[in-house]
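Shipment paperwork, digital attachment
Item: protein structure file
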Amino acid sequence: DQVALLAQERGVGNVRTRQGDVTQLPFQAGEFDWIITRYSAHHWRDPQAAVNECRRVLKAGGMLLVSDTAAPEEPLFDTVLQTIEILRDRSHVRNYRVSEWRQMLQRAGFTAELLLTWDIRLEFDSWVTRMRTPRHRIDAIKAVFDEAPGEARAFLKVEADYTFVNPGALIRGVCASA
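Attachment content:
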């Protein structure tokens, strides 16, 4: 509804909205030139099925852009990040590593390229408030940060007020063939 409203307010007439399961998109094969997902993929329960479905609805040479939080390749840092994420948001499934994205894209018939990485600084109080995280989970997140190994805290740049940095990545998949 929000997308349709914004398109109307901006006078953009070629926007159609549909809601559906990312593993069963309500579109014909080869219907799109581009698919862009922004900060949703870490909620996908079956990312390989979703990537396969994106490939199905893209034309030959079409592109899938995935912009999302990314898990670090280092298992310790990854574990700490996944733990705090799921404590904050029960709909969180996983932040995927860039190497995992490359594998999923290649298995689906894409060439895969990392375009950009960045740090997302998350101010702790507003981060937990946005999700209405319950107090006992907030306390658990703080305990994870307090007890995490120093190198994990350093990687996530945890500050005194628990503000921290979450890695982000932009990955492009190009359909290799029809």
